[in-house]
Amino acid sequence: MDADRRSILLAADHEMALTRREIVQFSGLAGVGALLATIGSQIGEARAQTYGASEGDLKILNVALGLEHEAIAAYQAGAESKLLQKPILDVALLFQGQHKQHRDALAATIKRAGNMPVEPKPVADYGWPKLTSQADVLMFAAKLEAGAASAYLGALKSIENKEYLTAAASIMGNETQHLALLRQVLKENPVPAAFIG
Predict the structure, then answer these.
(1) What would the pLDDT profile of 149-162 be if each residue is shown by its tens digit?
(2) Nearest CA to 106 among 64, 141, 144, 142?
C-alpha cells in the first residue's frame, strides 16, 4: 500500500474515532466535514481508476448515482426553502457537498467502464412531500439518508467487482453518518439498532 493511500486511511480511521459529542458540536463540524470531503475526493478518484465492470455492477452503480442525484437535489431544495437556520443550513450544505463527491466518483467510474452515467431527474419528478418547517426538512433528509444507506447495503450483496464493493461500503458508511447526525438533531436516538437493516 503506498504512502498516500495509507495516510488517507489513517485520516479516515481518525475521523471515525471521534466521539459522538465531538461530532454533534456543529461549530466544529465544518472542519470535520472539510477533512472528510478531502478524504472522500481522494478515495473517489483512486477508485474511479478501476476499469471494466459487469453489466450488473454498472446497473447498480447507476442506481446509486440516481440516489446521489436525488440527495443533492433534496439538500438544495432544503437550502433554498429558507426553513433551515444556521448552523443546520451549514451542515445540510456540507452533506450535499459529500453527495456531490459520491456522484462525481460514481459517474467517473461508470464512464471509465465505457458506460453512460444516469442523468439527474427534474426536481418536480421526485414527488417530494411539502416541507413547512426545519423539522420537516430534517425528517425528510433523514428518510432519504436511511433509504440510501439501505440501498447501498443491499447493493453490497450483488456487486462483483471488489473495488466497487469497497467504494459502495465507504459511501454507505458516510450515509449512515449523515443519518445519525440528523437523528441526533431531531432529538431521536442517533443509533437505534446494532445492525442496519
Answers:
(1) 999 999 999 999 99
(2) 64
For residue 191, is it within any domain?
A: no
Provide the CATH number for the domain around residue 92. Answer: 1.20.1260.10
Long-range contacts of 160-164 (CB under 8 A, 24+ apart): 160/54, 160/56, 160/57, 161/50, 161/52, 161/53, 161/54, 161/57, 163/47, 163/50, 164/47, 164/50, 164/53, 164/57, 164/60, 164/61, 164/109
pLDDT one-digit tens code per residue, 44-81: 444 444 445 789 999 999 999 999 999 999 999 999 99
- Rounded Cα distance between 152 and 10, Å, is 24
